[in-house]
Write a structure and sequence with these properties.
One of its GO terms (biological process) is isopentenyl diphosphate biosynthetic process. InterPro entries: IsopentenylPP_isomerase_typ1, NUDIX_hydrolase-like_dom_sf, NUDIX_hydrolase_dom. The model has no long low-confidence stretch (mean pLDDT about 95). The strands form three sheets. A five-stranded mixed sheet has the order 6-3-8-7-10, sandwiched between helices. The protein has a three-stranded antiparallel sheet with strand order 5-4-9. It is α+β, with helices and mostly antiparallel strands and about 230 residues long. The chain is globular and about 45 Å long. Helices cover about 25% and strands about 30% of the residues. The chain has six helices and ten strands; from the N terminus they run H-E-E-H-H-E-E-E-E-H-E-E-E-H-H-E.
């Protein structure tokens, strides 16, 4: 049976009705389903897969902006993660695949929604597309993620106006400070952030001012699958 959402935060329940882009394992669009449908583990276990993005934003000191997801979040509440992670929606502008434009537009939209970062501070052309990550991760017995995740990096000094319904806390970290967070077992981290950090992030971070040699735009990296 579909889960009863009455126990959850009303705004987060409303967002669960947004329509995600359903894809196959080669990132080919095959339809659309609600965010709720896409994040139910029963559906994920049957192969339901959707498109997503993850933004890694660095300031002029090359520190990475992290967020801690709000307690109100239905999936992965209270966990630290990268700057912003969400989904392009099944709308005309966010379906545009050329130059990853739809995912860029979605990233700009969610940076404003979650963190209050205005679009003029993060122009679409400044997002550096690194690669795509395919992963699956349960949040609990009911909810989870199964995504092909477009990875963007952007370097910008921004003003924050955090939405408390989305984000519980923020911090800028150096590579050493992030490594220390990872070894501290009391610090909860989202599974996709762990996967990306364990495979690519620190290599990319070392090249943040010249990323051209790090880009792999055609590959879909399958992470965490046995």
């Amino acid at each position: 049976m579909p889960p009863n959402l009455q126990e959850y935060d009303k705004e987060q329940v409303r967002l669960m009705e947004e329509m995600c882009i359903v894809i196959d394992e080669n990132d080919k669009r095959i339809g659309a389903e609600s965010k709720k449908t896409c994040h139910i583990m029963d559906n994920i276990n049957k192969g339901l897969l959707h498109r997503a993005f993850s933004v890694f934003l660095f300031d002029s000191q090359n520190r990475l902006l992290l967020q801690r997801r709000a307690s109100e979040k239905i999936t992965f509440p209270d966990m630290w993660t990268n700057t912003c992670c969400s989904h392009p929606l099944n709308t005309a502008n966010e379906l545009i695949e050329k130059g990853q434009l739809g995912a860029r537009i979605a990233a700009q939209r969610k940076l404003d929604h979650e963190l209050g970062i205005k679009p003029e501070q993060v122009p679409l052309g400044k997002f550096e597309f690194l690669t795509r990550i395919h992963y699956m991760a349960p949040s609990d017995g009911l909810w989870g993620e199964h995504e092909i995740d477009y990875i963007f990096m952007i370097k910008a000094d921004v003003n924050l106006d955090v939405s408390p319904n989305e984000v519980r806390g923020v911090k800028y970290v150096t590579p050493d400070e992030l490594r220390a967070m990872f070894v501290d077992t009391s610090v909860p981290m989202t599974p996709w952030f762990k996967l990306i950090c364990n495979t690519f992030l620190f290599k990319w971070w070392a090249s943040i001012d010249c990323l051209d040699g790090q880009k792999d735009e055609n590959t879909i990296h399958r992470l965490g699958f046995d």
